[in-house]
Please model this.
Amino acid sequence: MRGFPSKSKCQNGDDTVAAMTAENESTAQPKPAFSRDIGAIAASIASYLQSIPLVLILGFFFLLPILMIAVVSFWDYDFAGLYPDFLTMNYTDTLGSWVTWKTYLNTLKYTALVWGLTLLIGFWVAYFLAFHIRTTTMQMVLFLVCTVPFLTSNIIRMISWIPVLGRNGLVNTTLIEMGIIPSPIEWLLYSDFAVVLAMVHLNTLFMVTPIFNTLMRIDRSLIEAARDAGANGWQILWNVILPLAKPGIAIGSIFVVTLVMADFSTVQVMSGGQSASVALMMKNQMSLLQYPAAAANAVVLLIVVLLMVAAILRVVDIRKEL
Amino acid sequence: MSKAAEIDIVSVSKVYGSTTAVHSISLKIPSGSYCCFLGPSGCGKTSTLRMIAGHESISSGDIRLGNTVVTDFPPAKRGTAMMFQSYALFPHLDLVDNVAFSLKMKGVDKEVRRAKALEMLKLMQMEPYANRRPAQLSGGQQQRVALARALITDPEALLLDEPLSALDPFLKIRMRAELKKLQKSLGITFVHVTHSQEEAMALADIIVIMNDGKIEQAAHPREVFERPATAFVARFMGDHNVLTGRVVESGEGRVTLEVAEGQTFTVAGPDQAPGAPIDIGVRTDRVRLAAASDKTLGFNGVVSNVEYRGASVKITVNGAGSDDFTVIASDADYFEKPVSVGDAVSLSWGLEDAVLLGRMAA
Model:
């Protein structure tokens, strides 16, 4: 043990000498090595600099607001103001109320219905575009036709349903005049039917686009190979096309689920205020200046939606698509 | 293992809009033979194969498999199986499910079809990879799986669309041998589309050479090589030089022609009307670098290129109206009396080394 320190010291000495000679060598031809170092540092700084705009935008407009909502959700409040605190009251109030659970159930019901319908309609539209339209020009034209409704705002598209579905609206008057029904159908407007109809109308394109994209990537010889193996149309659809369209279905589902879960305007307008959704509940809390309660609700909704997205990603591997 | 079927193609045409891909071709492929469709791209060979398979509708004419007219049958009812150019393996299924796919479509029980698929994979020596996905395999392995998938339906004829084109040259030669062995052991009819002369020569019992939607020649490789039917076949197979001219005289089983540059050549053949256009083919490997004893069996030209190929040397000569008259000389002959680019050379061949080429009726 006694010899050990001296040995290490000796080694240190050697290292210093080696370092010094190395230094001498580097001073002998300093320029290339030096400029190379600067270049490497500059390159690494440059890549950080390049990422700064995105970091700033995401930080200010995405992370910071979420963080603030999370912080505010623990604050205290009354009719006059907000008081910084650390209370779990907002959460216990929210989760302890049967209204919340009922509203969540209602929102989930809308989500499930709209998801199912947009998937059904979206898949067939995408399938038709991808497999039955032969020319790419026609495909592009029809695809653009699908996006035409997006030339007007959500609200206008929603409101335009009212004269169609209303008590004296287009559908009811037509049916009455044709003598099919004696009196107007009441559930056409301001009902769950109206809400789901408007939501499907608003969101189907978000399902069509990613599914169309995956369908277009399916190698057509796979379908011939399946036909060669004796598969009929439905068998090809079920055994080849659907499994290969899964990533697109998953991406479309994420769009639709997150949009419907966070919707409040469609529910409010189309149900005529008779139905509630989680986001609508938050909006009402905010109009009553109950910001911390709304924030707690938002955090819970965020967690629920993230869990749903995680579940979708768990079922389908979408990495192939990205 | 299974019955093989004769394939009978009766004046079959394929029309796409205003273009005709296949012009009323007729062909009999004997049962249990290995048939290669050979030709440049766009000659209609793949269309023909796809019509036999049922993946392309037949514009006119009929196709018979054995004693059944299959013209209007769907692919799976024809008793044929197709192997696609890119193999078309299902990327979302493992090898067992890929091979068992057609059995699943028929509603065979899971246990039974998996067992049969495994057996097929074992035959192709792909059993150790049974649970992998196609993307995890090499090109040669994918091809074996595609073969297993095609053969599990117990077809009477296997249709292969450029099966070797995706493989590297060494693997190509190995898989070629495997295909031939497989065809021999199964005894079923193989119809193989390729654009490689070498591949067709190595594999086929019948080579069908197509050009412009028509069959130029359908014969055993030896006959195609020794007696190419048309100038196109001679040029495409590459073993003959083609000389084009007009008949000056004929008789006693010989025809003499004159080419544009004035030389005359003699070839064995039936009488021809004087002045008729005519093509002859001269075997590249039989041309000697020596003056001809009979001046109608040779000419003088100028060497334009020399390519060393190891056992042989390829010499290209300008002359007799041809700017790529090819001579394949053995290396021993060449190095005994080497020539270089720009040299004037005398070429000669025997009467039996030249063939009279036919012309397709337009």
